[in-house]
Write a sequence for this structure.
């Protein structure tokens, strides 16, 4: 989701330009490792860690991102009870989803500076407990205002876990497997979001909406216990800590791409992203496309339950099971991206004369996924009818998620390769915050229709308020 921000350090750190790289090259040879700023022979370089240590760091990053993504959507299973418990309309109740996403939208703006100042492991191990405190507050809330505020700050403090995962992967895995780990780290958030209503439906039916927050809290505790021994993976932080441990002066490092002074930080992650959203065609086009896709996919977590319940008489558990299609779609997208990367890149590299491949090859998954998005939207809209059996729109959802994730992997990879370091960070920040903001907004208007605000709730959602 927002995980594509932290990897800006893996590029030549001396360029300050924000214009696209005109030659559009990408090379996955040794030169691409210079952004790590540690010698390839340095035993402390995360690339030289034993495989089990690198897998452990990756697993922790995946677990933290999964929990925060799970927390976004598990709430939707209990929206009907939130409306009756707090006497609010369904549209107001959806704020619990939207404000959480809006909180995450701030993470791309702040996380690069936090990880530069404190290292990745510190941010991980502080972010998740703060996230958990506000999930606890949401579960204990006595009025909707408290619930809405706690959900916003849960997203705000959990957001860095979604941003840092890519930086962690870039630290510990060679750039030669970029396409593969992009797919894997995207799975953490997509599968987490898909699992939310799947588990939430059964939890809500058995114990009520508050238990959707308790389950999130339990998963957060499990992830934290897994990650309590997380080693620092950020090379700049490793070198600073090593020097301090040895009683040496701080190492002389190239200025961080995220900026050092407050003015530079605001310029790189606030002002320049805003400017790029209106002046850079690549950023404008990519942000609009990814933003539309994200807005649609998060509106699905509101609209699909309504459609399945009102059209096919599903209960809340059956609705949750339908989201297995979304999980399957994300797995298929990851497999598609990895296979394309493994088949296409070696052939292009072999044909090149200087070991450089045009970055447009990153767009192959999007070329396929874009067709999937368009076809699936028509498919779902035309087949969600009592005259057509329920597997049809559910399979359409699988196709949409496959297309959505394929486009995301391509778009973010292309943005990363298209700009030099500071431009990359600003471009990725613009795209991430923009799509999360749209994702927060669309669910609030998607159900201004007969299902919620003009008609009674579907029978399966008319549950008694549970305290």
């Amino acid at each position: 989701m927002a995980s594509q921000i932290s990897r800006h350090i893996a590029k030549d750190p001396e360029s300050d330009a924000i214009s696209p790289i005109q030659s559009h090259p990408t090379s996955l040879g040794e030169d691409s490792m210079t952004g790590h700023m540690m010698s390839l022979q340095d035993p402390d370089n995360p690339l030289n860690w034993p495989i089990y240590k690198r897998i452990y760091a990756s697993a922790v990053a995946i677990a933290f991102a999964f929990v925060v993504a799970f927390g976004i959507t598990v709430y939707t299973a209990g929206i009907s009870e939130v409306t009756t418990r707090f006497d609010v309309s369904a549209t107001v109740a959806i704020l619990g989803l939207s404000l959480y996403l809006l909180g995450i939208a701030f993470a791309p703006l702040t996380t690069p500076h936090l990880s530069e100042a404190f290292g990745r492991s510190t941010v991980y191990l502080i972010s998740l407990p703060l996230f958990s405190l506000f999930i606890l507050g949401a579960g204990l809330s006595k009025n909707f205002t408290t619930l809405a505020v706690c959900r916003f700050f849960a997203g705000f403090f959990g957001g860095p876990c979604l941003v840092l995962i890519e930086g962690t992967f870039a630290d510990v895995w060679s750039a030669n497997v970029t396409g593969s780990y992009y797919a894997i780290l995207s799975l953490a958030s997509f599968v987490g979001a898909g699992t939310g209503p799947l588990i939430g439906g059964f939890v809500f039916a058995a114990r009520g909406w508050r238990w959707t927050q308790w389950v999130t809290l339990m998963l957060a505790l499990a992830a934290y216990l897994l990650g309590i021994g997380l080693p620092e993976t950020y090379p700049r932080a490793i070198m600073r800590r090593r020097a301090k441990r040895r009683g040496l002066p701080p190492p002389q490092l190239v200025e961080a791409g995220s900026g050092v002074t407050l003015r530079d930080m605001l310029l790189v992650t606030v002002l320049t992203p805003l400017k790029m959203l209106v002046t850079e065609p690549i950023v404008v086009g990519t942000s609009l496309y990814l933003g539309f896709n994200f807005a649609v996919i998060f509106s699905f977590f509101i609209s699909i339950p309504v459609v399945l319940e009102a059209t096919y008489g599903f209960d809340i558990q059956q609705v949750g099971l339908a989201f297995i299609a979304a999980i399957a779609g994300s797995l298929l997208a990851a497999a598609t991206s990895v296979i394309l990367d493994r088949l296409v890149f070696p052939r292009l590299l072999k044909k090149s004369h200087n070991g450089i491949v045009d970055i447009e090859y990153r767009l192959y998954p999007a070329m396929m996924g874009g067709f999937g998005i368009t076809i699936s939207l028509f498919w779902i809209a035309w087949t969600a009818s009592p005259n057509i059996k329920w597997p049809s729109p559910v399979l359409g959802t699988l196709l949409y998620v496959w297309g959505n994730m394929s486009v995301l992997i391509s778009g973010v990879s292309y943005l990363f390769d298209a700009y030099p370091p500071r431009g990359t960070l600003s471009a990725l920040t613009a795209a991430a915050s923009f799509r999360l903001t749209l994702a927060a907004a669309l669910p609030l208007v998607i159900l201004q229709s007969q299902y919620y605000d003009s008609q009674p709730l579907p029978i399966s959602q008319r549950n008694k308020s549970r305290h």
Q: What stands out?
A: DSSP finds 19 helices and two strands in the chain. Residues 126 and 159 are 12 Å apart (CA to CA).
